[in-house]
Amino acid sequence: MNLHKIPDSSLQGTPPDPGPKYDIQLLFPVLTLVGVGIIMVYSASSALAIKKFGTGYYFLKRQAIFAMIGLVALVVCRHFPLKLLHALTYPLLLISFVLLAAVVSGAGYSVGGATRWLRFGDFSFQPSEFTRFALLVYLAYSMSKKQDRLHVFTIGFVPHVVVLGLFILLILLQPDFGSAVILGAVTWIMMFVGGVRLTYLLSSLLVLTPVAYFFLVSAEYRLQRLISFWDPWAYATEGGYQIVHSLMAFGTGGFWGAGLGNGYQKLFYLPEPHTDFIFSVIGEELGFFGVLVILGLYSLILIRGIRIAMGAQDPFASFLAMGLTAALGLQVCVNMGVALALLPTKGLTLPFLSYGGTSLLLNMASIGVLMNIREKQNASAENEEWKPKGRRQVTTR
Question: From CA 82, how far away is CA 376, in angstroms rounded?
């Protein structure tokens, strides 16, 4: 009888190759929302598309193409090396600056009085969406490098606010107040989570409040929106027109809704029913029940994103996951708040549901990055599990 000492790993074999993994807890609600979005974009835009383009399928076809491109972006970002994304921090910032500068320097494409897009043939690109992603990568990179010094004013606060201020200035020149608010809010949240002193953050709010007030009242249309927000019914034919018809849509929907395709407010009453106010169309056609389902799907994404951020071992990955999740949640809250007359009107899309190629592409890319971070957690856990625990004796004959 011979005794041999062999490693446990030899007995257990090598860890099986799991192959590419996709976080179902993220993928399911995202793909469901994208599918619902394609359907609702068609329902909300068919009448408008017939009037403008002679076919009711114009926005439907484009949204389907955007969804396929977004799916490719999700897959690419799911497998994109995080170390390479880490290294691309400053190139991404530079690209964002160039694109925003191009918009405000005369190359931008105007819609509804705002110049926020760059035109490439039949398709347009909104640089502010890309800027949000680039800024989040920068913040995650910078904060992960300065973890132990984030409480220092000149290290944890000033550099981030300077970069943020540069981008916000270019975005306000478009003008796009909604995107500027999202950028500022998500930066504030990331600095708060990272450990920047609360006194710095609260002081910045006190300083920015009069600046924001001046910007709001400096343009007549923004001032009218703000005034009509307090009593939209008193300005139902002016600044409160959008909110009034949005509330009418929710009121008509009741609990079960008027039925898919049977909405009334989308028929040239509710402005931008397939973009900014698609949530109102959902409320009218799918009712309170449909709204609850949508809220549930978003909740699944946000909860999963927070868990991924909390579970990430790499500080860069953790900060990035938190930033991406916070940005998505803020955009959802702002869009829904506007539709329900809880916030003044702002031109922000509803992630995964609203019509728009840039928004859908960048949001699905963000989900791919979250899946990437989650997979790195799984890989680390598997490596720990398959480490040899020592050597033991095995009897052979």
Answer: 9
Residue 15 maps to a domain: no
How do residues 81-137 score in pLDDT, each as one tens digit? 999 999 999 999 999 999 999 988 878 777 766 778 888 777 788 899 999 999 999
Q: 273: Cβ–Cβ under 8 A, 6 or more apart, which residues? A: 44, 45, 48, 265, 266, 280, 281
| Number of Cβ atoms within 10 Å of the Cβ of 81 | 9
Nearest-CA neighbor of 366 among 29, 76, 40, 38? 76
- The percent of residues above 90 in pLDDT, for the chain, comes to 61
CB atoms within 10 A of CB 360: 26
Q: Is the residue at 148 inside a domain?
A: yes
Place of tokens 């969406």: 129
Other C-beta atoms within 10 Å of 155: how many? 16
The count of domains in the chain is 1
Q: Is residue 216 part of a domain?
A: yes
Euclidean distance between CA atoms 265 and 267, whole angstroms? 5
Q: Are strands 391-396 and 123-125 parallel, antiparallel or unpaired?
A: unpaired
The pTM of the full predicted model, rounded to 2 decimals, is 0.89
14 occurs within a structural domain: no
Domain hosting 392: range is 2-9+24-396
Nearest to 302 by CA among 325, 318, 322, 324: 325
